[in-house]
Amino acid sequence: MKIQKDEIKAVGLTLLYEPDGSKDPAVDIVLVHGLGGHPVRSWRCFDEGQTPTPITPTHPSSTRGKRLKKPPPTAHLRRTNSEPLLREEDGFVGRSRSLLRKASFKSSSRLRLAELPDQLNETLSTDVYWPLDFLPQSCPNARIFTWGYHTLVVDKKPLCLQGDIFAHASEFLLELATTRAALGTQARPLVFVAHSTGGVVVKEILRLADLERDGPLKDVLLSTSAVVFLGSPHRATEYSSLGGAVASMASEMLSVDIDDPVLSQLCGANSVELELGRQTFIRQWNEYNFRVQTFQESVIPAFADADEWSAATMRRLASFIGDPREKAATIGALHNSIAKFWSMEDAGYHALVAFLADAVRNEEDRRHVPDSKETDCLAALVRPPLSLADSYPTALYPGTCLWLYDLYDFQTWHNRSGPNKNNILWIRGESGCGKTVLLTSLRRRLRRQWGPACASIISVTADDHDRETAPGLSSANQRASLATVYRSLLGQLFLQDPDLRTALLALYDQSRADQGAFDDNQVVSFFSDYYINQAIKTPTRRTFILVEIPHEAGSLYVGELLGHLSRLAQNSEFSICVTSAHHPEIELKNMISIPMHVRNTDDILCFVNLNLMAEWEERNRTVMMVGRKAGGVFLWAEIVVNILNAAILEGATQELIEYTLEEVPGDLYGLYEWMLGTLNEKERAEALVLFQWVMLAAEPIRLNDLFIAVRLTDPNSSEMYQKSGPYMALDVGSPFSMRDLRQLRNSEITSDTPSQFHRWVRTRSIGLLEAKSDGNESLGLQRVQPIHCSVRSFFLSRRGFACLAPTMSCTPSSLTTTDLIDISHYTILRACLTYLNMRDFESLNQSPKSSPITKSPPFLKLETHLRPLSTVTTQRQLITSSYPFLQYAVSNLLLHLLSPTYFRYFLPQNELFLTLSANKFRLWKRWTSLLGTYDPEEIIALHTKTGSKTRGLMSPVYGARFRLERVLRKLGGLSAAAVKAKNEEKRDGKVRKKPGKFGRQGKGIMSPVTPILPASRLWKGDGREKVWKPVVSGQRFMLPEELVLDLPGGGEGWGQMSPIKLGTPGPLHVGLAV
């Protein structure tokens, strides 16, 4: 929709063009003229056969375009647009002044050009108004406005008692904000095009908007995407001050004397606002990162008067900002015609519209909606979140975290000014000093301040990728963890960086092992070798990247990650903040280092003073004692204050409180040990089971699942390990039901409701564990996790599980940290197998009857590999969601099987086969039915896909994958063969004579070439009679003449023991345990 030229208002804001259709315009382009201009005539070009004005890339050349004609100032009383209102000879000067006075206070007055036939003294053969004639074609997805104001001039002298240029800017800001708010487009990006002193108006409205806290006026600044200056004054020159340059441009446009004191007042030549606007604009350019383009006049006419030549030169030099980021261009025209273009082929118009079209395109890219291929590429890059968005509490206490925003280094980083604008803000400190809370405070502040400006705030949490390893990372896990960070970072930049999308799509089209996901090595190589080594430009004006590195990450990992992020900051406009452990050994350039544990002393004292319940006279001494002993660790002070408050409520005196403070260890790990030391032997055993599950679970476990898991776990795991060794994990025992579970194990846990069990968890963990919700979830569905990452680090080190380990004589004192963690995994694996073996799941063993319409489930087929039907999938999801802990046991069975070091290198194939195949393949059928596939290849692929926690455990380094595949293939083959034979017997009514031959079908560990060693009575739940001893490399075993297996039943007689001869007995040399 375009309006007619005669509908343009001379004063106020006029909408010239709006795109038709339902598509929302990308930007609003607003044209602002200077003193002496007009919303039409400042941009309108008229001539008779004029040649194009060339763009001059360097200093003025000898080539000059013909100066555009302007109507001569024949009237003595004129508006700011320099057009005559009424000639003096008409005799209506008094009336015209009265009408003009009314018009000056009514911004809605209209100047209809067609109704003033005597205003122009020449007839135009060519009349081009490029904002209407050309710009809608060049930028069809932009809404175009023009704004006008006027100044009274009599006999080439401006009148007093009228608004100056800053008053006009205030009116403009109010009208622009009101109009956009009324149309509901206050957040739409803004592009200003200013001519001459109109640049002063634009700077002033941005300065005034910056003074606002929020609201529509503030939105004008936050929405500013780009500013174009056409011959606008920016700085002082060797010829004149900034005020002199502004006065010279106003004098040129108004055709008045430059030394007129009224002119100096109207243009603010001597006003402090002029310099404030210049300084504020430079700061805003850095802080809000909008785009700026300046155009200078390149035609310097050979005036006979040296003063006129000097004034033209001064105007040209003053239109250069002088910032290193500025890319100024020149247009071959004089000052009053630099904003007039006679055709779309004009070189000056080409330069201007190229910048405007690029600004519109950037905003369209920022709102980019991915297509199907881009969605698939993004899914291959980004992994779904595994747990809570914020893993640990981020409560902010009043008066804390404010010290950061007063630091000069932070302000220069935040405002992108000075030498720190491309540096990384590195907040580092000891564990528990409050880095996560401070980063949360910063994130909230940035969202509150930059959210209306459509800034991008990217949060990335680095994962150590191996929750059982502490405290350092192996090289493989380190690379995987780097890939996790880069995946998250690239995924969040994917939609706002067109060049990144193009590069990732090209990488996505390349062939790889898993077409549905990028490999970790691909991601790390792409990020470190390609993306961060090139200039990065995104349409988003400000991008903040907040990276949280876990405290237990090693220095090599932190150093490599910081090095890559430093290069990213140097080659982009991103503001990057990183939090990590202190790591004093790391020294990198381009870093703003803030030692958190040194700076937060005042925050700790403020917290203790507000929360300590002591009321004695020397209370301040107690507060100072806590603050000094905390050593900058906020979490230590928080825990100790809670302990002291509990003692004060029980009547503790000041002397007892101060004595307790002296006894409490000053370090965080020592405090945890001191707290766990208050538990008795029985409570420590229960706490050990509880912490085993929370610390070593594959994901934060839900409260209902944890209740079942604790009941399933044998509290005497150390005794079982001493007796059976690693094979304790596969000694499932006899099946029982849910009803029997409460009486069999951990019956002392009498909690019947989630709230009661939650209180038990808080008590046994002495407050180190808590339940946190993903959203609006009930208590039973909330996930149990440590109160802080330092608790996890404490337990994954020797100090955690060691202080809870039983002190009985049967527990070896030589157990290492790895041994303690491995025993915990054996215990967890045994609990998972015990749960799958319960009598409540007997229906999963029954093969559903096939019908002509409904096909049998896939695990009933021997050779046909069909994916589960949607109805089967729905039933499987219904079953796993109906029983607590069932989904976890099915999904993470292999994880806990391969996590122990011994099983990773020496997978007990025979024991595993016998456990899963016992009782007619009960455990195998249940597990594969709930898993969704019985095919060994699909099972392995499911657990080795990108993002799976078991992928690293199946590395060829360990050899567990090959051995596990052998077991799975034989289980699948024998199970399917047994079911097939049973179906054939029912169909033919025959009984097979030699059921033992099924043991020789297929390739796998049951073939004569690869025999299985016997393991007596393991599947019967009686435990091992012999004491476990580690397998020694090179040990020789003797095969028996016959290996007895309990084959699955296919009718009567199938459950009996049938001998299978494996060949002549003889020695077998074993390199690794089979």
Give me the secondary-structure topology.
Elements lengths: L11 E6 L9 E6 L11 E2 L31 E2 L14 H12 L23 E2 H4 L1 H4 L3 E7 L4 E2 L2 E2 L6 H18 L7 E6 L2 H14 L4 H8 E7 L11 H13 L6 H6 L5 H17 L2 E7 L8 H13 L10 E3 L15 H20 L5 H10 L26 H8 L8 E5 L6 H16 L5 E6 L13 H19 L4 H11 L11 H11 L12 E6 L6 H16 L3 E7 L10 E5 H4 L1 H11 L7 H12 L3 H16 L4 H10 L4 H9 L4 H16 L4 E2 H10 L4 H8 L13 H7 L9 H11 L4 E4 L10 E4 L2 H8 L1 H5 L14 H20 L33 H13 L3 H6 L1 H6 L2 H5 L3 H23 L4 H9 L15 H29 L47 E3 L3 E4 L12 E4 L5 E3 L5
Parallel strand pairs: 2-6, 2-9, 9-10, 10-11, 11-12, 13-16, 13-17, 14-15, 15-16
Antiparallel strand pairs: 1-6, 3-5, 4-7, 7-8, 18-20, 19-20, 21-24, 22-23
Helix pairs in contact: 4-5, 4-6, 5-6, 5-9, 7-10, 12-16, 15-17, 20-21, 20-22, 21-22, 21-23, 25-32, 37-39
